[in-house]
Amino acid sequence: MSGPVTPGLVIVDKPGGITSHGVVSRVRRLAGTRKVGHAGTLDPMATGVLVLGVDRATRLLGHLMLTEKGYDATIRLGVATNTDDAEGEVTATVPAGHLSEEAIREALAAFVGDIEQVPTAVSAIKVDGKRAYARVRDGEDVQLKARPVTIHELTVHDVARVSASGDNATLEGTHTTDLIDVDVSVRCSSGTYIRAIARDLGAALGVGGHLTALRRTAVGPYTLEHARTIDQLNEHYELLPIADAARAAFPAYELDAEQAQEVRYGRKLALSLDALTAVFAPDGEFLALYEPAGEMARPLAVFTG
């Protein structure tokens, strides 16, 4: 690409087997700029919605990370791993074939609402300046503190005895009929670890559990319908303009010319807002994000210039 870089979002359907940083690198080449970031990482095993910001739109990403997210996942009961997913080493197996579907659904229902969740030990959370996953990789025993998260909705689609064999989540002497796969959809707050739900469900049922599949279906208003595969982007680089992205993610307020000039100076406005709001110039240009401040509104992030 030549000329000025257009700021906006690129919604990618991340394939499995590639890191989020790997996707960022590819979009940097397509966009013609190194100023590309993502709104929440996905593990290499995971697929689905990865929201990338280009140029000034990278400054939107920190606010997008505060939104709800949606996932489809498969939880395998009967096997625990050291990463809480299928990429880790098996640490324990306990036959789960005796569990009823009713018991599994009842246990999962306990996770809905405001809960305290201990993040997976191989998360990107920093412990004394070092990523937790790096400490685990170095052989350290990492104990993370519980954090408040919200599970808005958890839907169970299927509960099935496993009939396939030969995966990395079985040990010698463990029959596949001892394992159960649970297909779920989750709508949750940012910061929720679906792997931790699998781990904690297995612990609650006394059999261990881990994820065998994870697909992110939504980040805020951006869903798989908006996402494009890497191959599709290679054929036609498609970017959601920053103004459209802001309108999709936040309440919008249309300013008059005088107010727009005040925003360009980074000043407070005599506006009564109920939430973080995207404000626009009379010509439709996205100017800033403003937040309530009593009877006024103050700039949280200004995107002009």
UniProtKB/TrEMBL annotation:
Domain Pseudouridine synthase II N-terminal: 28-194
Annotated InterPro entries: PsdUridine_synth_cat_dom_sf, PsdUridine_synth_N, PUA-like_sf, PUA_sf, tRNA_psdUridine_synth_fam2_C, tRNA_psdUridine_synth_TruB, TruB_C
Enzymatic reactions: uridine(55) in tRNA = pseudouridine(55) in tRNA
SUPFAM superfamilies: Pseudouridine synthase, PUA domain-like
Membrane-crossing segments per the record: none
General function of this protein: Responsible for synthesis of pseudouridine from uracil-55 in the psi GC loop of transfer RNAs.
NCBIfam families on file: TruB
The protein's name: tRNA pseudouridine synthase B
Naturally occurring in which organism (per UniProt): Nocardioides cavernaquae
Name of encoding gene: truB
